[in-house]
Amino acid sequence: MRNIVSFVHLSLDGFVASADGGLGWISLTEELFDFVGQRIQKTDTALYGRVTYQMMEAYWPTAAEQPNASKHDLEHSRWYKTARKVVLSKTLADEDHADTRIIRSHLRDEITQLKQGEGSEILVFGSPSATHALMAEDLIDEYWIFLNPVLLGQGMPLFKNIQHKTQLKLVSSKTFASGVVCLQYEVQRTS
Questions:
Q1: What is the domain count for the chain?
Q2: Residues 56/123, Cβ–Cβ less than 8 Å
Q3: For residues 45 and 166, what is the distance between their CA atoms, to the nearest angstrom?
Q4: Secondary structure of residue 84 in the 3-state scheme
Q5: How far apart are alpha carbons 112 and 29 in whole angstroms?
Q6: What are phi and psi of 52, to 5 degrees?
Q7: Angle at 184 between CA 120 and CA 37, to 5 degrees
Q8: Among 120, 147, 110, 114, which Cα is nearest to 15's?
Q9: pLDDT tens profile 58-115
């Protein structure tokens, strides 16, 4: 069974985006890019909400072709082009996204089928709305939270509308020179 892994930046006060949806507060360094680059090599599938997917599609397919492409741009663009993509959206048309699976409804059934399919884990990149939908159905197996040393005061929370207590187990942590701390949690389910 494939795991669904939420990969998300978080402010110290629990927000994934500022009140205006901005992400400029996220601390991005070469050290962090290298860590994430090595980490995502373990997966072959990315899951996005529509907004994040459209942002990714606008940049990553051609990022490596830019004259000023960074090491991160080259590596992530190469991975992005080969990764399977799954998008939770009710508005994207299939014909516009031939290499992407779009899930419009029956989330629990569709994700369960995806988890039972071939491949490695499925990473959810950012995508707060998609993450909230997956949380509501108790479909996330792990959280990789990149806790940024900033207080936003308001914004879009990561954890909201939680339907029931969810026990998490801290598996690992890593502190970066920037002060960002990566916390890996596994969801503890009782059978």
A1: 1
A2: no
A3: 25
A4: strand
A5: 35
A6: -65, -40
A7: 55
A8: 147
A9: 999 999 999 999 999 999 999 999 999 999 998 887 666 667 999 999 999 999 999 9
